[in-house]
Design goal:
This is Transmembrane emp24 domain-containing protein p24delta4-like. The structure is a single chain. The protein is mainly α. It contains 8 helices and 7 strands; from the N terminus they run ββααβββαβααβααα. A 3-stranded parallel sheet has the order 3-6-7. A two-stranded antiparallel ribbon has the order 1-2. Strands 4-5 form a two-stranded antiparallel sheet.
Length: 299
């Protein structure tokens, strides 16, 4: 006798002949449907797995984990410190920019005071700047009173810059250090902030020879000398006579015996020119016996 069951809740349950999934007729197997991973639960499992791994290594190699963690922490502190230093440096530059405009601290400086360096200060104490044995001297410079000449030269550069509020002071690092030790000769507030150093100069002794080579207008160039001891003046003239003759034949110091100056890098740092001053890149790359004829900002 056939029972007739109405459709609805009282209907007999259907019988699944095959397991849940996609049945492959050819192979006779059931392909299980992959469950979608819970998007929020998966990262939690990853973190727990990482924590378990770290705990395992800590229990197995506690000292190794300690030193690795310490190194990681120190690295983070260094990175944060550098970022903080960079932030404060930019903030301080911002303070310097106030009143100058264009966000550049030297925008109003139109003139340049160059202090030609004649020696290198070698003493570890800045209290001996007036002693000859505190300086590296050439044979023709080893005369009484020579150190006092250097000090007078440094002071003269500071005073010249102090007299011109639109001037930038340019000197070697050791001259800058001596000026700092002498309190900038009473001109610190007005001069120190606009005093820069140059460590890659090849020669600055011959005013007219160098000025002519770079085409700087004579009407805008002024030379201020410092008195030299009578005992050293004659020796200095003889000592520089040979170099003067070399520059007369090779105005840019890029040929012959002067070529060695091109690669001068006493502190083993990369020479920043010409990439550091693209406005006169052509001048930096030029080598010849006649004046440079390209475009120059002061021409």
């Amino acid at each position: 006798m056939m029972n007739n069951y109405p459709f609805g809740s009282s209907s007999p349950k259907s019988f699944n002949a095959y397991s849940k999934g996609d049945f492959d007729i050819e192979s006779g197997t059931v392909k299980r449907t992959k469950r979608a991973r819970n998007s929020w639960f998966y990262p939690v499992r990853m973190i727990k797995s990482l924590a378990d791994t770290l705990h395992y290594y800590y229990m197995s190699h506690p000292f190794l984990v300690f030193f690795v963690s310490l190194a990681f922490g120190v690295t983070i502190l260094i990175v944060l410190s550098l970022n903080e230093h960079h932030y404060w440096m930019l903030k301080n530059y911002g303070k310097l920019d106030d009143g100058f405009g264009n966000y550049y601290p030297y925008v109003k400086l139109k003139n340049l005071v160059v202090v030609a360096t004649h020696s290198v200060y070698t003493s570890t104490s800045c209290g001996e700047v007036d002693k000859e044995d505190s300086w590296f001297l050439e044979s023709y410079q080893k005369n009484p009173g020579q150190a006092a000449t250097f000090l007078s030269h440094i002071k003269g550069g500071v005073e010249n810059a102090a007299q011109d509020d639109a001037a930038l002071l340019f000197e070697a690092q050791n001259y800058w250090t001596v000026a700092e030790s002498e309190g900038w000769f009473g001109k610190e507030e007005s001069v120190k902030w606009r005093a820069l150093t140059e460590e890659h100069a090849r020669d600055k002794r011959f005013a007219n020879l160098h000025r002519t080579a770079i085409g700087f207008p004579e009407s805008r160039f002024f030379y201020t000398g410092t008195p030299a001891p009578s005992t050293s003046k004659e020796a200095a003239l003889k000592g520089e006579a040979l170099v003067r003759a070399q520059f007369q034949q090779d105005p840019f110091g890029c040929m012959g015996s002067l070529k060695k100056k091109v690669g001068r890098d006493p502190f083993h740092r990369s020479i920043p020119y010409p990439s550091g001053c693209p406005e006169i890149e052509g001048l930096f790359r030029y080598c010849g016996i006649v004046p440079f004829e390209g475009s120059l900002p002061w021409a």
